[in-house]
Design brief:
Layout: E1 2-7, E2 10-15, E3 19-23, E4 32-35, E5 38-42, H1 52-55, E6 59-69, E7 73-79, E8 84-90, E9 93-103, H2 114-122, H3 126-131, H4 139-157
Antiparallel strand pairs: 1-2, 1-5, 3-9, 4-6, 6-9, 7-8
């Protein structure tokens, strides 16, 4: 499902899990934002909904990733032969959003647990993901394997040193 939303005077076509950069919104990083100004809803293979009655309840939910600033823009004005030069810079405030859900009814999507999200990536069912125990390697096994690799690489990487020969006899010069 996709939606066309309007925020900050611009329009964005978004789908779930998209990351977009919009004009500054008043929200903390990590919080959820509801975007109500939906212009179009659609799915692939179906006709898009654009009527006001369909879009009245529709909303898009997004998670605020960070508040940042855009690249600096240099404004330079000049009038030749009048000794007029003005230079100014500007950095626009912006908000980075990750779209978490698109709803035609305005209902907030249920948060997906981390186990379910990893199950979707690996192709497991939700039951398999919740019952599967994750084993982490112990510190002892990790350090042994890294020590072996480190000693082998040190031995192979050291070049053989040439013996230094000091000459005690000085060359005699002709007088």
């Amino acid at each position: 499902m996709f939606a066309v939303i309007k925020t900050g005077g611009k329009q964005y076509k978004v789908t779930e899990n998209d990351v977009i950069v919009v004009e500054k919104l008043t929200a903390e990083a990590g919080s959820t934002v509801k975007l109500d100004d939906v212009l179009m809803l659609g799915e692939t293979g179906k006709t898009a909904k654009t009527t006001a009655t369909d879009l009245l309840k529709a909303s898009v939910f997004a998670e605020v990733i960070e508040q940042s600033r855009a690249e600096k823009i240099i404004i330079f004005k000049k009038k030749r032969r009048h000794n007029y030069r003005r230079k100014a810079g500007h950095r626009q405030n912006q908000t980075v959003l990750r779209i978490t859900g698109i709803s035609a009814t305005g209902a907030k999507p249920k948060p997906v647990s981390k186990k379910v999200a990893t199950a979707k990536k690996t192709g497991m069912t939700e039951v398999q993901a919740t019952t599967k125990k994750v084993t982490k390697p112990t510190k002892k096994t990790a350090t042994k394997s890294t020590k072996k690799v480190a000693t082998k690489s040190k031995i192979e990487s050291k070049p053989k040193a040439k013996p230094k020969i000091k000459s005690s006899a000085k060359k005699k010069t002709k007088e």
